[in-house]
C-alpha cells in the first residue's frame, strides 16, 4: 500500500486485546482499512507483520526517545512533542514520517517542513483546515470522530481520507460492518 493511495486509517488502542490483534487487523484490512497505527495497543512487531501479509501499511508511534522506531515503513509523532526533522533522524532512511495534531498551525507547519502524511483531529472542520494547507500531495487524514455519524458528516463535507480509533470500529462482526460502511462512504466496494 502506498500512502498516496490510502483513504482509511485506523488507530489501535487498548480496546483491542493483545490476543485479538491478528484477527482485528485481518478483519479491518478485509473491510477496507489501508493503514493501521499501533497506537496504544503495543505489540508493534505483530501488527507490522500482519499488515505486511495483508498488503497494508503499519504505522508505529514515535516518541522523543525513539520508542517504537523498529524496522517499519512509517512512524507518526505528536506535533507538539517531536518535529518531523527529529523523527527523520531517529528512523531509517526511506521511512515515512507522519504527524498527528489537533492544531491547524501545527498541521500547516508539519506539511511545510516535509511530513509525508498527517492525521488532523481538530474537530468537524477538517475540510476547512485542509483547504488552508498550501502544499498539495501530502495525504491528510481527518481524525477525532466520536461517532459514525461524525465520520459520515466529515466525508460529506468533502474530506476523502479518514482516521478512526479502534474503539469506534469495534470488534468481530461489528468491526467488519462499520469498517465496510466507512469504506463504502469513501466510494469503495467491499
Stretches where pLDDT is under 50 for at least 5 consecutive residues are none
Helix content: 25-40%
CATH architectural type:
Alpha-Beta Barrel
- The largest beta-sheet arranges its strands as 7-6-5-4-3-2-1-8
Overall strand count: 8
Helix count from the secondary structure assignment? 8
- CATH class type: Alpha Beta
CATH fold field value? TIM Barrel
Q: What's the number of domains?
A: 1
**Class by alpha and beta content:** alpha/beta
Radius of gyration: 15 Å
Please tell me about this protein's structure:
The protein is an alpha/beta fold and 190 residues long. The chain has a single domain (3-185), classed as Aldolase class I (TIM Barrel), CATH 3.20.20.70. The chain contains 8 helices and 8 strands, in the order βαβαββαβαβαβαβαα. An 8-stranded parallel sheet has the order 7-6-5-4-3-2-1-8. The radius of gyration is 15 Å and the shape is globular. 44% of the residues are buried.
Question: How do the helices and strands line up, and which of them pair or pack?
Answer:
Blueprint: E1 8-11, H1 21-30, E2 35-37, H2 44-54, E3 57-61, E4 74-78, H3 84-90, E5 96-101, H4 104-112, E6 117-120, H5 126-132, E7 140-142, H6 148-156, E8 162-165, H7 166-169, H8 172-185
Parallel strand pairs: 1-2, 1-8, 2-3, 3-4, 4-5, 5-6, 6-7
Helix pairs in contact: 1-2, 1-8
From the structure above, extract its key features:
TIM Barrel, 8 helices, alpha/beta, 190 residues, globular
State the gist of this model:
37% of the residues lie in helices and 18% in strands. The chain is α/β, with parallel strands linked by helices and 190 residues long. α4 (104-112) links the parallel β5 and β6 (117-120).
Amino acid at each position: 500500500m502506498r500512502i498516496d493511495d490510502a483513504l482509511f486509517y485506523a488507530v489501535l488502542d487498548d480496546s483491542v486485546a493483545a490476543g485479538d490483534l491478528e484477527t482485528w487487523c485481518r478483519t479491518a484490512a478485509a473491510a477496507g482499512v489501508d493503514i493501521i497505527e499501533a497506537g496504544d495497543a503495543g505489540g508493534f512487531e505483530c501488527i507490522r507483520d500482519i499488515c505486511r501479509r495483508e498488503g497494508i501499511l503499519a504505522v508505529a508511534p514515535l516518541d522523543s526517545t525513539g520508542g517504537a522506531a523498529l524496522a517499519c515503513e512509517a512512524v507518526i509523532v505528536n506535533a507538539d512533542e517531536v518535529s518531523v526533522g527529529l523523527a527523520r533522524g531517529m528512523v531509517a532512511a526511506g521511512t515515512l514520517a507522519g504527524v498527528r495534531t489537533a492544531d491547524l498551525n501545527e498541521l500547516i507547519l508539519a506539511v511545510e517542513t516535509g511530513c509525508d502524511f498527517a492525521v488532523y483531529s481538530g474537530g468537524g472542520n477538517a475540510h476547512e483546515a485542509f483547504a488552508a494547507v498550501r502544499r498539495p500531495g501530502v495525504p491528510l487524514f481527518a481524525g477525532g470522530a466520536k461517532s459514525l455519524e461524525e465520520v459520515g458528516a466529515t466525508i460529506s463535507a468533502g474530506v476523502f481520507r479518514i482516521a478512526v480509533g479502534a474503539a469506534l470500529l469495534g470488534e468481530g462482526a461489528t468491526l467488519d460492518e462499520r469498517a465496510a460502511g466507512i469504506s463504502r462512504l469513501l466510494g469503495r466496494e467491499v
